[in-house]
Amino acid sequence: MYVGRFVVVGPGIGAYRVSSRSFPNRQVVERDGTLTVAPTSDAPPTDNPYVSYNCLRTVEQSGESLAVVGNGSHVDPIAEKVGMGYPARDALALSLLALDFEKDDYDTPRVAGVVETHGATIATVRRDALVVREVAEPTLVATYEADDPEPFDLGATDAATAAREVYDHAYEHAVCAAGVTVGETVETSLVNE
């Protein structure tokens, strides 16, 4: 099954995977602690604004580290709001509502999550809804087919395994992935193949 790009978050752990039929020549790169989806060197030129974006940012809020994961440019305003002290729910809702779903041929939903040491919040904005939920177990939301948050059996306990697990998941057209754990320290990892 093809679900497109997806986010999985739970308390202390998160992951993001790019799945694509249209733009398979992408990779996750690390830039000053931020993980960014970017075209590979062999990718054809494109002016599509949805191809390159920060997919994982870490922020500090009142001395605690948090991570924001998502499928587009909304990751930055969410991270900025969390860093300013907004609760995860409010940062997700305000940013997703402001940017709305992607204005492409498919009205692609935006998906995102905030990972805290002892909690997580997941969200999506689609043509027909804005959904924001606090979750106590790993939960997935995807751009297609699974566009309402649902439990996800994530067995990983570290960032590298989380990235690898979502990359290797049976959903079709894996391109690249990122993983994060949040605790006393923040650990990130990426998978490109």
UniProtKB/TrEMBL annotation:
Keyword Transmembrane helix: no
Entry keyword annotation includes Hydrolase: yes
E.C. number: 3.5.4.10
Gene3D superfamilies: Inosine monophosphate cyclohydrolase-like
UniProt KW keywords: Hydrolase, Purine biosynthesis
Enzyme class: hydrolase
One of the GO biological process terms: 'de novo' IMP biosynthetic process
Pathway it works in: Purine metabolism; IMP biosynthesis via de novo pathway; IMP from 5-formamido-1-(5-phospho-D-ribosyl)imidazole-4-carboxamide: step 1/1
A GO MF label: IMP cyclohydrolase activity
TM spans (from-to): none
Organism domain of life: Archaea
Annotated coiled-coil segments of the chain: none
Domain Inosine monophosphate cyclohydrolase-like, first and last residues per copy: 2-181
InterPro entries reported for this sequence: IMP_cyclohydrolase (IPR010191), IMP_cyclohydrolase-like (IPR020600), IMP_cyclohydrolase-like_sf (IPR036795)
Enzymatic reactions: IMP + H2O = 5-formamido-1-(5-phospho-D-ribosyl)imidazole-4-carboxamide
Family: Belongs to the archaeal IMP cyclohydrolase family.
Function: Catalyzes the cyclization of 5-formylamidoimidazole-4-carboxamide ribonucleotide to IMP.
UniProt name for this protein: IMP cyclohydrolase
Annotated organism of origin: Halomarina oriensis
